[in-house]
Structures are given as structure tokens and as C-alpha cells.
Amino acid sequence: METEIKVLGQTIMGRRKSLKNQEEPTNYTEDELKDLRTAFDLLDRDQDGMVTPTELQFMLNNLGIHVSDELIDGLMKEASKTGNGLIDETEFLQWISRIQALRESPGAVAEDDDLTQDLVAAFRVFDRDSNGYITRDELQRAMQMIGETVTDSQLNDMLALADLDKDGRINYEEFARLLL
Predict the structure, then answer these.
(1) Residues 66, 47: Cα–Cα separation, whole Å
(2) 0.70 exceeded by pTM
(3) d(CA 175, CA 136)
(4) How far apart, in Å, are the Cα atoms of 130 and each of 72, 79, 86?
(5) pLDDT tens sequence across 3-60
(6) How many CB atoms lie within 10 A of CB 65?
(7) Which run of H or E residues covers position 59?
(8) In whole angstroms, what is the distance from residue 78 CA to residue 97 CA?
């Protein structure tokens, strides 16, 4: 069961193109880099190594975040070193690093509060009916939203891995424990 989830992750990671001769931020742990590269791969729907404004807008809309095209264009221009309105993986990593530096500046919300807010927001994305649980169907819809097709077996494995109390659904505590 856990092996299939790892295979799914390796499949996602395997789609990433090599970054030889490109400078990437070094302030990330290996696990953080892996997670950020996975995020980039999910954004880069056509796997051409560049995130377009359309791809960013698609992902945000699927997460229930609706922003104007002008804001998307501004975000893309800010992140793109070349100014071409496209973001490659290195630019994405550098952009995230700049955002994190801003969040860690004096006056920012305490890290624990910030983490809790992020976890609650992520949980709400999955918990579509707001009943406090992520069901198998909600998990499947979330995977579809990010463009990942999973088999019934993979879906059952993911649920089994996270569902510690074996009630057939994932509550907030189980979700947080899985991600932390």
C-alpha cells in the first residue's frame, strides 16, 4: 500500500526536467526541495518545464481561489527573471524563497499560527462539504483537481495510510499528523 503511494510520488517527480547548469536556492532541505518540485510539476500541466499564466490560473481556480487575470500576470512577471511571463523551476524556487523571506520578516504571524492556518486551509480544500472529514470521494476529487488520476487501489492506500482511527474518513488531526 505505501509502495504504491511512493510509486505515484516518483511518477510525479519523474516528470521533472533536469536543472543542470541552473542556480537554485540552497536554503531548502532535501525534503522541502522535493515538495516544491512536486508543486512545480503539478502547476506545469503540459510538462514543458515552464508554468504559464493559464496553468497558474487553472490550479488556483481548482483550489477555489479566484483571482483576476491582471493579478496572475503581475505574479508571473514578479516571478519570472526573464520577464517573459513564464516561470521555470529555478524561478519558481527562487520566488517561493522570496515569499518565505517576506513571511519570516519582523511583524509576521508566529510560525505555529501560520502553520495552523495553512493546515486548516489545506484541509478545507479537501473537505468540500465542510463536515470536518475528508471522505474517499473528496480525496478522489482533490486528486482530480490537481490533474492526477489515481486508481481505486491507490486511493484506498492513501486513505488507509491517513485514516488512523479506521473510520473510513480522514479528520483534521489525522490530516495534520500525515502532513507534519
Answers:
(1) 23
(2) no
(3) 13
(4) 28, 33, 35
(5) 444 444 444 444 444 443 445 555 788 888 888 888 888 889 899 999 999 998 888 8
(6) 11
(7) helix 53-62
(8) 13
